[in-house]
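Worked problem 6 (solution included).
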Amino acid sequence: MVGRLRRDRHGDGGATQVRPPDPHPSGARPPAIPPELVPRHVALVMDGNGRWAEQRGLPRTEGHRRGEAVLLDLVCGCIELGVGRLSAYAFSTENWKRSPDEVRFLMGFNRDVIRRRRDEMHEMGVRVRWAGRRRRLWRSVIRELEVAEELTAANSVMTLTMCVNYGGRAEIADAAREIARRVARGELDPERVDERLLARHLDEPDMPDVDLFLRPSGEQRISNFLLWQSAYAELVFQDVLFPDLDRRDLWRACEAYAARDRRFGGAVPSVPLNPDARRPR
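Solution. The predicted structure is:
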């Protein structure tokens, strides 16, 4: 892959080289999917870390640690295939129900992963974004997310959205609450509230709809992830735990996506009957 150019927003305005992603250790290359059939936005539920560890007699936290390299590999796979956006479910609003020890680990782990990987993401031209609620989230996690957002703001190879302290219902409720406040202040006519206006009040208003919703681990549910954005997403469930996932699984999911007929609520074109066949004989 030829390196691309990125504008340096903190320097003299010159262009800097973006390095290509590391190849897969097996030498595998992405499938030849026509560009118009490659999903633009993939939503990823990173599920199965705890079960992976327990099956090996390890602490649940070891599964999360293994998942760090998997996420980076998937980012590389997205760049190689041409997927423009990957949104990763890193910590949900429901994950606070887990044990205090696991919650503490996940908070610190998310913070440290972002700190460790942000320069690598920046070198590959990845723009890092954050979606989720600020309240209850550790200030150190927020700080690392904001630093990563600022560092990578001008990148355009792809966008990685880290969904931390995120819930689809919470996102919609927060948007509705802000709209209600604007109506109460007289800033907004309630008759003007429609789908487009609500979308502009979501965590990431410029986030496009999800094309491919990918969940490994064998579970077949969306678990409150990107509910609004996934209204017409194609769902792919894979029987592999997240720590064992790699970009080849992502590519297989993209091939399944490319083979589907997306109608967005439209009807399948019907074949007209022979007029003579409808006449009584």
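Discussion: The first helix runs from residue 49 to 55.
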